[in-house]
Design a protein that fits this description.
Helices cover 76% and strands 0% of the residues. The protein has one domain. Helix 3 packs across helix 4. The two termini are 14 Å apart.
Length: 135
């Protein structure tokens, strides 16, 4: 049985939710300057700012699934491309930082899931360049 494109996207959204929890629990905002900066834009309390920022990202991922990808609206393919590329970079980045430090880096445990789902979605999107995606 093959998982459809919408199922893969749901897997990506769930993986991002788990990834955000891992990043929060292990305090990415304490060790990664861009996360600290963005969290500080939201709140003086970095943990709160990080939680709010990640809640917005996860909410957008599930909004994309329920209101763009699952009903297969016209813009679904563009949303799939965008999310897949962002999450591919996210997964690669966490693995790179962990390898560079030769140590744990917050988010590295869930990064492989982001890679698997984003690569599977990109594979589907590339195969469907000249035809509709099968959702």
């Amino acid at each position: 049985m093959q998982i459809g494109t919408s199922g893969l996207f749901l897997g990506l959204a769930i993986s991002q939710a788990a990834h955000s929890i891992e990043e929060f629990y292990f305090r990415l905002f304490d060790v990664f300057a861009p996360a600290r900066y963005l969290s500080g834009l939201i709140s003086e309390n970095l943990a709160l700012g990080f939680a709010i920022g990640n809640a917005l990202v996860v909410t957008l991922a599930f909004w994309t699934y329920f209101f763009r990808v699952r009903p297969a609206v016209g813009s679904a393919k563009a949303w799939i491309w965008a999310w897949s590329l962002v999450e591919l970079g996210n997964g690669i980045g966490h693995i790179f930082f962990a390898l560079d430090a030769s140590a744990y880096f917050p988010g590295v445990y869930t990064a492989p899931f982001l890679l698997v789902f984003s690569l599977a979605l990109l594979y589907r999107a590339v195969r469907a360049v000249d035809r509709p995606l099968v959702y």
